[in-house]
Amino acid sequence: xxxxxxxxxxxxxxxxxxxxxxxxxxxxxxxxxxxxxxxxxxxxxxxxxxxxxxxxxxxxxxxxxxxxxxxxxxxxxxxxxxxxxxxxxxxxxxxxxxxxxxxxxxxxxxxxxxxxxxxxxxxxxxxxxxxxxxxxxxxxxxxxxxxxxxxxxxxxxxxxxxxxxxxxxxxxxxxxxxxxxxxxxxxxxxxxxxxxxxxxxxxxxxxxxxxxxxxxxxxxxxxxxxxxxxxxxxxxxxxxxxxxxxxxxxxxxxxxxxxxxxxxxxxxxxxxxxxxxxxxxxxxxxxxxxxxxxxxxxxxxxxxxxxxxxxxxxxxxxxxxxxxxxxxxxxxxxxxxxxxxxxxxxxxxxxxxxxxxxxxxxxxxxxxxxxxxxxxxxxxxxxxxxxxxxxxxxxxxxxxxxxxxxxxxxxxxxxxxxxxxxxxxxxxxxxxxxxxxxxxxxxxxxxxxxxxxxxxxxxxxxxxxxxxxxx
Length: 471
Fold this sequence. Notes:
By secondary structure, this protein is α/β, with parallel strands linked by helices. Helices cover 27% and strands 17% of the residues. The protein contains 14 helices and 19 strands. The protein has a five-stranded antiparallel β-sheet, covered by helices on one side. Strands 9-10-11-12-13 form a five-stranded parallel β-sheet. β1 and β2 form a beta hairpin. α6 (198-214) runs parallel beside α7.
């Protein structure tokens, strides 16, 4: 395939040639070869596919919410070419047998994938790490879906096991001892945000970073929802991610979302949301990851204390970010870094995340001149709703995974329209066949920010800011 006159994230107009699974060349004035499909990309952006480092595709155990087939179709339609599935399925991915079961199911994926290993009291690290594990985590420091919350001693053990194998640990950081129990007397949709306070996240991020620094190891903080949590990760030299729902939604939206807006960590006040968004723009956040956590509308239509936590988002993340790039709120380069280049760097995927010669041909073609409203009935997740209903997005017209077209639609047709087509499952485990004999001498934290060595950072004291009850 040859893309002609495509605009890259940095604004350069280039021809991009795809040969087999890789980008063969990026340049100007390429002539078409025999048998080569030519795509006129004039006026369109050609971006690296999004690496979503945090999804819950629910198999095994929750296929009525999502499957690898439906989740990966949703990912492809949203410009996501690699997903990382979390371990809180049923059974949880805490040993080799559970990993193998999930791996078999993931063969139905249209997009590439990584499978994270989980930590519980009865996990089996030896059999787990004998598999092609992407990372360890999310390691839950407070209970969430799946009831996999652990105490600090087990967290320390998990860090040691992962560090011995040079595996990154992803942390769900909330401190349950700082939850506001008085909020349990309420039954409104905002009660969940009042219960799982902002200070509970900030304190847990600080403590998780302190524990990691003491052991000269690295962690990645999942779904930071507060500016204080982002700042704590930055101060410690750790990497962090932010979800689209914590970027775009706040407690003000709960009047419309009701219990559909319950997630962990929860939505925050509007001023905090804006400060999180500002940190995304300014470069203090390493990546956007969706925490795609689908539940059916019927399941979410429950009392605030009984409704499950989580919202879908794998198909809508990149379109929302591109809509912001279109208006100038974000740059296209920042979108590229947040969704592709930085996740590839943080999680050691050297062949992904960039449009350059020799890289995997994970590509997304979009027309930034056309936006469409997000509609649940036009999305492809098995989950039958979206928290972003009615917002504008810039959707892909074509998505390639290692050179194979896995999603395509007529540029003049709307997303979810009759012209859409999907390819066959071509997804592969991105860790499969990796050489485990790498150099372990460099133990500094990887990411988009330049950091001091962990040995230097460990000598610093990260002080906790005063509690803020206005979470």
